[in-house]
Design brief:
about 10% strand; 2 helices; about 60 residues; alpha+beta
Length: about 60
């Protein structure tokens, strides 16, 4: 995908408005941010949000 973005002149991070971490995710915002930084996607760190919707089990 990054290669396609480079060819078309689109910034890879611009493909994402936000990255939402759900209430039962097994990853934290810090861990995901570290992953993005380690993989050269620092611009995505500012797009990480924690879901405000509680998950209910019936």
């Amino acid at each position: 995908m990054k290669n396609v973005c480079k060819k078309t002149g689109i910034n890879y991070a611009d493909l994402f408005e936000e990255i939402c971490i759900g209430p039962q995710a097994r990853v934290t915002k810090d861990v995901l941010s570290d992953y993005f930084e380690e993989n050269g996607m620092e611009q995505l760190c500012s797009k990480i949000k924690i879901s405000e919707c509680p998950l209910r089990r019936f």
